[in-house]
Specification:
Elements: E1 21-27, H1 31-34, H2 38-49, E2 53-59, E3 81-85, H3 92-101, E4 117-121, H4 123-127, E5 138-140, H5 144-161, H6 165-174, E6 178-179, E7 184-188, E8 199-204, E9 212-213, E10 239-243, E11 245-246, H7 257-260, E12 265-266, H8 269-281, E13 285-289, H9 299-308, E14 313-315, H10 325-333, E15 338-344, H11 348-353, H12 360-372, E16 377-384, H13 391-416, E17 422-428, H14 445-459, E18 465-468, H15 471-481, H16 486-497, H17 502-506, H18 513-517, E19 532-533, H19 538-549
Helix pairs in contact: 2-5, 3-16, 8-9, 10-12, 12-13, 13-14
């Protein structure tokens, strides 16, 4: 049956599957969210670029029916390979739901050569695949451009030779970036009596590597990554999304992507100009995608080019000090009516803890630049419950919001006769693997609720909205973020016996969830994700943790000189941003 979205799509690839390797590329959430994921588009393009492979997309169905592909309506269980793209911990339960509704055994140990091969990739896999490891035959750790071609070559060779599943899994484990969970014997300490340990055994078998090294594309300059399939039913469906850079220079101590996607790499300006032309020819606005779009060395000439071509743009993220009068004017001219600012913490001291080096005055100035350019609304992103946070740090969030209201928004409202909105979006801090805060416990629920009440008491009488993410949901995020393979039992329990409700399943789970969420891990402990090799040293992360506690700033990456984190970017000239040509 044709999906309702299909008739409105442009760019979908449809191949005759005869004689080809049939791959279901699965985003374990809704079509709307999945089609906004640029990584999904990149892998879809890579898989279908192979003439011997037919790749179709599968999403979590809106109804209770069996999952089927968008392109042909093929049942998920009818493919040779099921490739999950995992971006968020919250989608873990959807993996089980999709496998179950496809009629497939949930656990890899219960599947054999009669079943599709189930593989996983994506940023969540790069950070910590262990909570869902028992459900996957294999993972690919890293970036699709360097992982997909060797994977397809191996699968084609195995299909031609009739390679049995056990031998295929051993071959997958030998691929650079390949991780086959079933080839490792793992044991952990008791969650109720850890005695200063976590992982007590992690031993590879049958030639599997002791550590799995992340693969990444060293030179991104000539690699365009843009939306392949256009759909007005996708989130940001009016945007032609195109990637400007990968990695991040700043090392914010709470941000996993800022560490596991290192080193920083940029797409050449001329390549992006060509992508902009393609997007404008489709009649779309240009969505510039990157961990910190404002770091892109060609941002000024690129946004000028978009404007001169009659287009408009929307950046995915901007640093506070990058929200200038000029850039704000270009955004407002393109129809932007609100500015999103991410101070993350309420005081300058607290921002030094997380390695953000800007002042309260700069935050207020960014809002002034946006409103003076014609925007009306301000959204502020903060985290709550960060390490070393005090009540004054929480009140600092309110002080910034009030300053923006009094010093910026009210004066502009008097001139325009219209009052804009200020919204604080506050998320409880969730510790993430592969960050300097990976050892840190999450704040307890009661503490977070008290901080929420403080913000609401200070701001709601002034008409400033506080959108505080549920501490209960954040607790579950932290559990899966810092979880190990025992979390697979919890996920299966929730799926089979609790209607997909993790909170209900916690009451029947053998492990103590507070072990993962509320316990401070020792810096010398073996962590469940330590077997991954991101190129970063654990010693570097521990040093950054100590600097954070001392509220000391670490300067941004200097790719032409720095070897501090272990990646040795200084030895790779291709990582250095190119000199930007300002002409047309």
């Amino acid at each position: 049956m044709e999906h309702v979205e299909t008739a409105r799509e442009r760019g979908a690839v449809r191949k005759d599957p005869g004689g080809k390797l049939r791959v279901a590329l699965v985003y374990p959430n809704s079509y709307r969210l999945g089609m906004a994921n640029l990584g999904l588009h990149a892998v879809y393009r890579l898989l279908n670029a192979d003439p011997h492979t037919a790749c179709e997309r599968v999403f979590l169905p809106d109804d209770e029916g069996a999952p089927r592909s968008v392109e042909s309506g093929q049942p998920l269980g009818g493919f040779d390979v099921i490739a999950f793209s995992l971006s968020f911990e919250e989608d873990a339960l959807h993996v089980l739901e999709l496998l179950d509704r496809a009629g497939l055994p949930l656990r890899a140990a219960d599947r054999d050569g009669r079943h599709p091969l189930v593989v996983g990739g994506g940023i969540a896999v790069q950070i910590n695949p262990e909570p869902v490891a028992p459900f996957f035959d294999a993972f690919l750790v890293g970036e699709g451009e360097v992982l997909v071609p060797p994977l397809l070559a191996l699968l084609h060779e195995a299909a031609a030779a009739g390679t049995p599943r056990p031998a295929l899994l051993r071959a997958l484990a030998a691929l650079p970036g390949g991780y086959v969970p079933g080839l490792y014997d793992v044991a952990y300490s008791d969650t109720r009596d850890p005695r200063g340990a976590w992982v007590t055994r992690f031993e590879p078998r049958d030639g599997a590597p002791a550590r799995v090294r992340r693969r990444y594309l060293e030179d991104l300059r000539q690699v365009p990554t843009s939306r392949v399939v256009d759909s007005p039913d996708a989130q940001f469906g009016d945007l032609f999304l195109t990637e400007v850079a990968r990695g991040c220079l700043w090392g914010c101590r709470f941000c996993a992507a800022g560490f596991v996607q290192r080193p920083y790499r940029e797409v050449d300006l001329e390549v992006l100009r060509a992508q902009v032309k393609e997007g404008l020819a489709r009649g779309q606005r240009i969505g510039l995608v990157g961990p910190d779009t404002s770091d892109y060395t060609g941002l000024d000439p690129l946004t000028c080019f978009i404007g001169e071509a009659g287009g408009t743009f929307s950046p995915s993220s901007l640093r506070v000090d990058a929200i200038t009068e000029t850039l704000s004017a270009r955004m407002a001219a393109g129809g932007e009516r609100s500015i999103t600012i991410a101070p993350e913490a309420g005081t300058e001291r607290m921002r030094r803890v997380i390695n953000k080096d800007f002042t309260d005055d700069q935050i207020v100035q960014a809002a002034e630049h946006a409103l003076s350019a014609g925007m009306h609304h301000v959204k502020l992103y903060f985290m709550c419950g960060l390490p070393t946070e005090t009540e004054d740090d929480v009140l600092g969030m309110a002080r910034i919001a009030v300053r923006i209201r009094e010093e910026v928004m009210l004066p502009w409202a008097r001139r325009r006769g219209r009052m804009g909105r200020i919204v604080l979006s506050v998320n409880p801090f969730v510790p993430k693997a592969w960050t300097p805060f990976q050892w840190v416990p999450m704040a307890e629920r009661g503490c977070l609720e008290a901080k929420r009440r403080v913000l609401e008491r200070e701001l709601r009488p002034l008409g400033i909205d506080v959108d505080f993410f549920s501490p209960r949901e954040a607790y579950l995020q932290a559990l899966l973020s810092r979880g190990d393979r025992r979390c697979a039992d919890l996920l299966e329990l929730a799926h089979r016996e609790a209607g997909g409700d993790l909170r209900k399943a916690l009451r029947r789970w053998d492990a103590d969830p507070d072990f993962f969420v509320l316990r401070e891990a020792g810096v010398d402990e073996v962590l469940p994700w330590d077997f991954l090799d991101q190129g970063l040293t654990k010693r570097f992360l521990a040093r950054e943790w100590r600097r954070g506690v001392d509220a000391r700033i670490t300067p941004k990456c200097a790719v032409d000189a720095c070897r501090a984190c272990g990646l040795a970017c200084a030895d790779h000239p291709e990582l250095r941003p190119a000199v930007v040509r300002l002409g047309p």
